[in-house]
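Re-run requested by the PI after the first attempt was lost when the workstation crashed. Everything re-entered from the original request form. Ligand of interest: magnesium ion.
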Amino acid sequence: MATDPAAELPFFYGSISRSEAEEHLKLAGMADGLFLLRQCLRSLGGYVVSLVWNVEFHHYSVEKQLNSTYCIAGGKPHCGPAELCEFYSNDSDGLVCTLRKPCLRSPDNPIRAGVFDNLRDNMLREYVRQTWNLEGEAMEQAIISQAPQLEKLIATTAHERMPWYHSKIPRQEGERRLYSGAQPDGKFLIRDREESGTFALSLMYGKTTYHYQILHDKSGKYSMPEGTKFDTVWQLVEYLKMKPDGLVTVLREPCVNRNNTKQTPVVPSGVSIKNILHGRYSLSNVFIEASAKWLIIIIIILLLNTVHFFQRRLRTNGYTPPPGVPLGGSKEIKTSPPTDRPMLPMDCSEFVNPYHDPNDLKKFFINRDQLMIDEVELGSGNFGCVKKGVFKTNKGHTDVAIKVLKSENEKLVKDEMMREAEIMHQLSNPYIVRMLGLCQAECLMLVMEMASVGPLNKFLSTNKDKVTVENIVGLMHQVSMGMKYLEEKNFVHRDLAARNVLLVNQQFAKISDFGLSKALGADDNYYKARTAGKWPLKWYAPECMNFHKFSSKSDVWSFGVTMWEAFSYGGKPYKKMKGPEVISFIASGSRMECPSGCPDRMYALMKDCWTYKHEDRPGFVKVEECMRVFYYSISNKTPPEVTADAAEPLK
Ligand code: ADP
Ligand code: MG
């Protein structure tokens, strides 16, 4: 429940039914204006305000809109459930009366977690782990970045994890399963119908099975004929456990599908994944509390059999990449997204392989015969060029980018590349280009994972019409996560710029080019360069230019410039100025203007990054949080609006 924005409210009861709400209000005295808030069982992320007036109950549903605001039908939008309730405590604005007296939850009455609340964290985690083969810190970061997009996807597939879900079986098989064992009234199962994407409910009553088709309307809602409409199948099932809605009986005991390997154990309420992470709750505790041995067996089967479940499923969906977004050429398992869900940041085969065998990562040197080098040049720089290649391991072949050092004789350049390799070798983060190893053969080669879509500035300037502001915010959020990681590890990048942010695909960015990077000593806050070299002055903070001092705070300044480049679709910063002119421009207090179409909040963050004094400038912890909050607030993470006929009837 930690994720519910209403969790902090003392009058929020969580997932309770209408009649339970009425019971609480009765016990609290039925005064005029007495109210409570509960989770809406019908729409994802919605609530219901239950209010007393004139010894009668009034229930108002609060819908979560596409733009993540909340409103009572016909009322004003509010940014959260708390704000909404506060508003209606001052202004009835169409309700029977203002919200006068909160009906407080008693301490022995904890917020009731909904079925999905219990599953969401687990599923999100499992999904990220299985789809992208991640563990540890990399997984934590991926979860943070993917949560908004995945929540909807997970909610709409949650039924597959339920014990009552029997996937595609014929009606007769459904009957056979219901008749096997005890046959109490209300025993039920859900199965797929022949017609794909539609479901049927088979229900036992008076030792007879009844079959109902679950309707799926144009807007994607599920319902019984003439019944209340729901965003997801599992919500409909939960509702039918409370109300028959035209069925012979309410749903009671699930007919458990013992073949369902996707089932997740129901985690006891109050056990959030955060508790598990922080060691407050071990996984074995969760299982024991779920107190069903067979669940453990299912989990083992689940782990063994479904590691590649999503991969298999995604592959069979015949995904074709959107134009301009080449898929990685890995010869291994493809994790291509199906067309029925949006392209997600980490849908790329490249991502899977480098993490496949942690032992591979420990190797620093790569044998020449493990590399095939293409003639194709991906780019070039001071040191030589970057070529496309294939890295052969016993696990399969992976596409790689190979930085080839041309001037082998120049010891200085060689040392520089060795340093770059050493820095990269210590980094492991989804948003940083991973180094796979060094190869010393006809020349020195730095082998990296491939980011085939190339530099961010180029991509944006050639794909203006295809890239939304939300897309840019998402990418820059990933860059901020990569930078937060660097800051935490005490590395300074010193060359953060849009040209050094490479794209794996349109939704997945990685920081690259550690040619100028430095590892700071444990007690050092900054690196002092003895001489100024070929420096990217337009990306440098004042203290870099004036005192040659480099720190994570100076990387924050560069992050601001990189943001500016991104929101200008690859525009050139301080376009008409020369390096030294930029120094005086900044010193005079001027800053670049807001790129057109760039959200105010993002421009405000850029300006924070361009705080003159590094002591007053935010660090990446702050920058990442700011990016994340904004990204989540604009991400399309809520389902479409509920149509009028589906709204919970108002009294
Ligand atoms: P430089 O220090 O010269 O800027 P970079 O590391 O930025 O070198 O690489 C130069 C160019 O090579 C990049 O702009 C990009 O086009 C290409 N490149 C580098 N690394 C990769 C990679 N991992 N995947 C794909 N292309 C890459
Ligand atoms: Mg570069």
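Saved to the shared folder this time. Confidence is low (pLDDT under 50) at residues 265-361, 637-651.
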